[in-house]
Amino acid sequence: MGSKCLVWAFGTLLLLAATADAQLSTTFYNSRCRNLTAKVDEIIRRTIRRDRTLAPALLRLHFHDCFVRGCDASVLLNSPRGGQGEKEAIGNKDSLRGFQVIDDVKNQIEAMCPGVVSCADILALSARDSMRAFGGITWSVPLGRRDGIVTSAAEANRDLPPPFANFNTLSTLFNGKGLSDKDMVILSGAHTVGFARCASMQTRLYSFSAANPTDPTIDPTFAAQLKRQCPQGDNTTLILNDQTKPSDTWDFNYYSNVLRSKSLFGSDDAMKRNAAARKIVLTQNKPGSPFSAEFANAMEKMGRIGVLTGRTGQIRKICTQTN
Ligand code: HEM
Ligand SMILES: *[C@@H]1O[C@H](CO)[C@@H](O)[C@H](O)[C@H]1NC(C)=O
Ligand SMILES: *[C@@H]1O[C@H](CO)[C@@H](O)[C@H](O)[C@H]1NC(C)=O
Question: pLDDT digits over 104-135, tens only?
Fold first, then answer.
């Protein structure tokens, strides 16, 4: 082998090593913290048995983490001076739940493998394990994310989708995170589970516009039902995202609700206001729906947004503060 060739081979090896380092892998902790995934799963199962509503909450926490600075656990950080972290952003304040679950898992994992497992990976695993325990859905979680050191309310207000956004605004936000319109339609199907505060419905029900105090795109019977559940000025009552079933379950009802104008948010209704997106909605809403499989793929993709790997970021010791 000539020296040029050796240099080339060595360079390729270095490149391969760097690339391998920068990629997430389901076996990332196998040598670093052997029993990690079993342990997280066990803790989360116990948690969800105690309170099922924490599963949708953890799913949303992971989504809101990934959309702001990537999946780097920035959503978990308390802002040092108070009042300006992601927790204080409009879409998060008085709304995100499940922080104590992550702290609990982190404490137990630190006791087992100190300084090894990132808060971002713990959040990604907890979201998946909780929804698996909730029932009917799971996805693959490649690991190796590292934790960020910055949290910003301003960035969260810029990057998190608001419930009154139209299709184009939502599309721009999702595309900006490397997700397609299809990913967006599929991921929005998460609104088949979980709760919303009446605060999130006030404008749509009571002060939509001067001409129409109630959003005219809502089915009138459904609007009347929502108004009974969420009286004007009620910011605190929690109501089910999917109003068509007595208990919260994983299914493709979301798409049926969108088509019948019986979803909670303008952003849900928007999913049928674009021809290509509407086709995807129709495809999900059939017997033998591909929804769960497509949701699993989209979640894995979402979990890769802007991840810190290799030597970037840090492994936080405590999820609410940088080291
Ligand atoms: C398309 C843009 C989206 C908008 C505008 C949006 C907006 C909202 C709003 C306003 C709530 C109620 C929050 C409250 O009132 O406290 C909510 C709840 C929820 N969202 Fe979304 N969301 C979107 C996409 C997603 C995605 C992509 C996921 C996950 C993959 C998701 C998962 C959830 C879950 C699980 C809940 C219930 C949380 C709980 O029970 O604590 N959402 N969303
Ligand atoms: C791994 O964790 C699970 C769940 O906590 C536990 O049942 C199992 O005994 C552990 N295995 C080892 C080898 O520590
Ligand atoms: C509900 O929230 C809105 C918007 O923040 C506020 O203007 C209103 O006073 C609140 N209502 C009550 C009863 O707290």
Answer: 999 999 999 999 999 999 999 999 999 999 99
Q: How far is the CA of 67 from the centre of ligand 1 (A)?
A: 12
**Pocket lining: 180 vs ligand 3, CB cutoff 6 Å:** no
Question: Mutation test of ligand 3: which of 93, 201, 235 has the most ligand atoms closer than 8 Å to its C-beta?
Answer: 235
φ/ψ of residue 293, rounded to 5: -65, -40
Say if pTM beats, i.e. exceeds, 0.90: yes
Among the listed residues 149, 181, 157, the one whose alpha carbon sits nearest the alpha carbon of residue 168: 181
* 35 close to ligand 3 (CB < 6 Angstrom): no
- Alpha-carbon span 187 to 113, nearest angstrom: 33
Pair 79, 198 in one domain: no
Taken in order 201, 187, 25, 8, is the CA torsion positive or negative? negative
CATH number, domain at 237?
A: 1.10.420.10
Residues recognised as catalytic: 64
pLDDT tens-place string over residues 30-42: 999 999 999 999 9
Is residue 200 within 8 Å of 237, Cβ to Cβ?
Answer: no
> Based on the domain organization, do 28 and 153 belong to the same domain?
yes
Domain that includes residue 263, residue range: 167-299
**Residue to mutate (ligand 2; options 30, 34, 39; most atoms within 8 A of CB):** 39
DSSP per residue, 260-293: TT--SSHHHHGGGSSHHHHHHHHHHSSTT-SHHH
